[in-house]
Amino acid sequence: MKNTRNEKKFKNKSREIDKVKITCFSCRKKGLYARDCPSKSRGKANHVPERTKGPNYSAFSSEIKRTVERSEDQWILDSGASAHMIYNLNYFYSLSESTENEVICLGNDIELPVKGKGDVKIKKLIHGIWQEGEIHNVLHVPDLKKNLLPEGMIATKGMKIVKMQDYADIYNCENELFGTAVRSASNLYNMLFRTVTYPEVNISHKNNLKIWHERTGHTNLKALCEFSETGIMKNRMSQTKKGFFCEGCQYMTNNTEFHPIPWNTKLLNLEN
């Protein structure tokens, strides 16, 4: 009987020793089991919310498969991109055309021209439900093959990205799920987004010298600059005369011929 009691004491003592080495996965404190964690019971655990497999899990999985297979409007969670980028003009519901020689540089030193910047509306799959959302300040890069969602831009907004083996979650500042990405066979994280398309897009032009030159019937450049500087035109030009070229004016100059008017003189006899 004494041996049995001694064995129990030894086992309890060994458990206490082992417990010191344990770390609670909920609050990350030492010497505490997760089942005994007070923060877990109060719902104040400082960890990513656990995924639950409810009755909609199978439907959610099928939606994931269909979304990933939609390669034409696929969004890639990219660690190297510096800005949101898409290639299809019809994805924009508002767009400001670029008049500068803006380019983006890819990893292989290839430069692609940027045609504008605007806003895009999307639908994102959150817990099996499609929710509406918007992405602002998106660059229009026609030569891209995929749409890019940069991790750096997400981090600067105070949001966080949690990557697992097969998926990645994006949480906003309130720790609410903003979006989910699924890892593909090529080790890329594809966002569960659908882009809303617009057959017509509202395009706004900057106050470009060439645009105003054409709007005013190919007015002399010197006069246009004077209009801008004196305030006759409300907005100043975003382009200088340096490097200006108008194909229409050049065509008219090269194809203009001088046609002299013939003059014939003779004396007239005025009879009363």
TrEMBL record:
One family name in Pfam for this protein: gag_pre-integrs
Start and end residues of each Retrovirus-related Pol polyprotein from transposon TNT 1-94-like beta-barrel domain: 75-158
InterPro entries xref list: GAG-pre-integrase_dom, PolX-like_BBD, Znf_CCHC_sf
Gene Ontology terms for molecular function: nucleic acid binding; zinc ion binding
Source domain of life: Eukaryota
Regions that span the bilayer: none
SUPFAM superfamilies in alphabetical order: Retrovirus zinc finger-like domains
Sequence ranges assigned to domain GAG-pre-integrase in this UniProt record: 188-251
PANTHER family on file: OS08G0421700 PROTEIN, PBF68 PROTEIN
Record protein name field: CCHC-type domain-containing protein
Organism: Araneus ventricosus (Orbweaver spider)
